[in-house]
Amino acid sequence: MRRFPVRVRKPIPENLTSFLRQPPLPRFRSRLHDERTASLIGTALGAAFATAFLTGLVSHVLQHPPSWLAHHLPTRPSWGYRLTQGLHVASGIAAIPLLLAKLWTVYPKLFEWPPLKSVLHALERLSILVLFSGAVFELVTGLLNSAQWYVWGAQFPFVQTHYWVAWITVGALVVHVGVKAPAIARGLRSPKKELVEAYRADLEAQRRGVSRRAFITTTAVAAGAVTVATVGESVTPLATVSVLSPRDVTVGEQRLPVNRTAAQAGVTRAVTGADWRLRVTGGARPLSLSLDDLAALAQTSAALPIACVEGWSVGAHWQGVRIGDLLDLAGAPHDADIRVTSLEKNGAYAVMVMERQYARDPSALLALRLNGQPLTLDHGYPARIIVPNRPGVLQTKWVQQMAVIA
User: Fold this and answer.
1) Do 51 and 91 contact (CB within 8 A), yes or no?
2) pLDDT digits (tens, 9 = 90+) for 345-368
3) pLDDT, tens only, 142-201
4) 171, 158, 341: which is closest to 267 by C-alpha?
5) What angle (nearest 5°) sits at the alpha carbon of residue 346, between those of residues 341 and 352?
6) pTM of full prediction above 0.85
7) Which helix (DSSP H) or strand (DSSP E) does residue 316 occupy?
8) In angstroms, rounded to a whole number, what is the distance separating the alpha carbons of residues 32 and 73?
9) DSSP line for 239-252
10) CA-derived radius of gyration, the chain
11) Cα 291 to the chain's mean position, in Å?
């Protein structure tokens, strides 16, 4: 009888069994990947995001006011939008180094095993994915918009997308803070004993590498540096040191930057020449006024800032006819809104609705002069709107008609 050799199966090595259960993952020995560092950086990042979100809401409401709120928006302080939009862009830019630092402190969490421990853990990770994606989208697109680098093309609805992604991101942030509240509390709580231990650990870390104190200080300096280097476009005294500012507000025609030129708007000298007339319709006495007619009316001066959604703003001296005076001449009701139409042919804001509180503000002008000189074509010649506490996109240039809305 022929015998076949019996092969004895060798047992699987213990290290291979361990590999099948858990792949070899990197080990992170730095003390900077701890709850306290993550909590401190995360708190600063949360404050920056909260500031950007709230000021962004202000900007959106001023540009696209809901009907129930439209007539309650304030015209004072006249520099209100300049402040809120400047804060919006500055806090967004400051959030960039804070977000990078925060990601560095927590990225070892990506290598935890198992990756999903429970349904609750899966939901937590999903909220982090939404939070990370939304934050990156908001900061990148916001930065590109402030630099007027519209890589997404004319068909992309930036304003609406930026607005709704902000709500989604803040929702994910609220979920994340709720889930991580105990860890955040532990990270921010510093009893005396823990402070002494942290100080000793920092001294030891300095001998081995970067300490927590050095890391947090570096992050704070980076956030402050990028803010100062860009905030000069809205804080004029800092314009000379804001070397990264996308807009130098000290340069431009009549000492004022131009966001949208007449050529871009399709407005030429031919349509703003001697035949141009301002029409005020919808009142008891419709008006048709030439530039000489407007210049013959009572002129009012106002020092008002022009503030754009990209974050830049600058104060200027304007002179022209009060919008309220024009409405009175046209026999318009005191509580009427107006619809302003521009000669611009291809702009999203060629037609603008101005609520009654803006139209009747004593500083609201149909401006004919800027900083002591007649308006140039790029600044809205022959006449433009300037109203306190409104976004620059609603300060209509090249005005041809004001229609009273009953």
Assistant:
1) yes
2) 878 899 999 999 999 999 999 999
3) 999 999 888 888 788 999 999 999 999 999 999 999 888 888 888 888 665 555 565 566
4) 341
5) 30
6) yes
7) strand 313-322
8) 46
9) TTT-TT-S--TT-S
10) 30
11) 38
